[in-house]
Structure formats: structure tokens, C-alpha cells
Amino acid sequence: MLRHIDPIIGPELLAILRAMGHGDEIVIVDANFPATSMGKRVVRADGVSATHMAEAVLRLMPLDGFEKEAAFCMRQVHAPDELAPIASEFAGLITKFGGKEFALTPVERFAFYERAKTAYAVVATGERRLYGCLILKKGVLQPGE
Fold first, then answer.
1. Residue 22 appears among annotated catalytic residues
2. Which SS3 state, helix, strand or coil, does residue 45 take?
3. Is 81 part of the annotated catalytic residue set?
4. Which of 97, 107, 3, 89 is nearest to 50 (CA)?
């Protein structure tokens, strides 16, 4: 065990987060997402909610402040102009850990899939809420952090 690291971040995911470089993306997905067919590297986190995983990752990983957009959710098919309830929770976590300069950007479902295919890794959670999918772009640590 390590201090200050949520125990849902296992050794494989911790190594992935450490190995990722500036601009690399990690995808946190719900139980319905086709993670194995989409991801280069897939980490299973069955039994863990996507929001819990997002919080654990955002505590460790800075978002990319050099980009206009660094956090993406899947746009709802049936209500494309509305954020899914879980996406509103993601938005709150992004503001809490990334700051007010970061916003959650909705992405059309199939565009989200294409982006996920190019991500560094996919974390497949046991999230059962629909649209519980999030992409985070890794930033840099500033001097003194």
C-alpha cells in the first residue's frame, strides 16, 4: 500500500499513469463500452464506478493546460444538447482537481470511439450509468509541484 493513492489504482494503472507523457490520453469507461476492442492497453476496474475512478486519476494526473480542451465526455444520442447526469459529476471533478479553466467537452458517440482507439490506455470500470465515459488529456507538472 502507498499513501495518498486510492487503492482502486492498482499497480498496472499506476505504471500506466506514470508512463504516460504530456498530451497522452486515458479513457475511463462504463461497463457497456467496448473497451477490449478499442484500447491498446486495457485495465479492468470491475466493481468501481467511473466517477470514483475519475476522481482517483485526477488526484494524481494534471490536465493539459496547453490545450483548449483536455477533458471529453460522450454526447448523449437521444439528447445531444444535454449532459448526461454522470457527465455533470465528471464536470464537477474536473473543476475540483483541474481548476476553473478546464471544462468538459461533449463528443459525438462515434467520434468518442475513434478518439478512444488512439488513447494511451482505457480503464474499463463497472459503471452501470449510461454515458459514463470520459477522456482525460495528461498535462505537465509545473516547477515546484
1. yes
2. strand
3. no
4. 89
Exposed (0-12), middle (13-18) or buried (19+): which is 76, by Cβ within 10 Å?
A: middle
28-51 residue pLDDT tens: 999 999 999 998 999 999 999 999
In this structure, whether the domain defined by 20-137 belongs to CATH 3.40.1650.10 is answered with yes
Active site residue 113: yes
CB 28 within 8 A of CB 129: no
Better pLDDT: 29 or 2: 29
Rounded Cα distance between 135 and 108, Å, is 13
Residues 54-99 have pLDDT tens digits of 999 999 999 999 988 999 999 999 999 999 999 999 999 999 999 8
User: In one letter, which amino acid is 8?
Assistant: I
**Facing residues of 29 across strands?**
124
pTM: 0.96
Residue 15, classed as helix, strand or coil, is helix
Specify the pLDDT at position 70. 97
**Selected catalytic residue, list 24, 30, 52, 64:** 64
